[in-house]
Amino acid sequence: LCGLVGTAVCAGSVGLATSFWQVLLFRFAWGLLNGNIGVVKTYCAEILDDTNQAKGTGMFGIVFGVGKLVGPLLGGFFSSPADRFEFAAHSTFLQQFPFALPALTCSVFCLLVCMLCAVCLEETLPPESRQQSRLTRA
Predict the structure, then answer these.
(1) Please, are residues 55 and 62 in contact by the beta-carbon 8 Å criterion?
(2) How many CB atoms lie within 10 A of CB 81?
(3) CA–CA separation, 18 vs 65, rounded Å?
(4) CA 120, CA 104: separation in Å to the nearest integer?
(5) How far apart are CA 102 and CA 85, in angstroms?
(6) How far apart are CA 14 and CA 10, in angstroms?
(7) φ and ψ of 35, to 5 deg
(8) Model confidence pLDDT, tens digit, residues 42-59
């Protein structure tokens, strides 16, 4: 969840950057905070068994590929909205920050996924192991 929040903050910051160096700094921080793929693969390995592992692993690959295709398409479509869309033509904010709309859209999606994960995903570590882990840390 921390990686998703970091992605949301850094993506929004990239869209609101006013210089090239700010974009580089926020993009660098975004890369440091975005370790989500390893976490997702580990979670999938823990919840899948022999009967559905091939299907789940294949689904991960498909979703990742679709995201790599659709993400840049949406980003390009939503960039410079003040020049392309009538409803945004009079917005000084969107004129000043032409990449704010795609970046903030990415941030909103990340925050929605973070909330869904916090509410819907189940813990994979059994309760007795959680208790034992707490005792060894103390």
Answers:
(1) no
(2) 20
(3) 31
(4) 24
(5) 14
(6) 6
(7) -110, 35
(8) 777 777 888 888 887 788
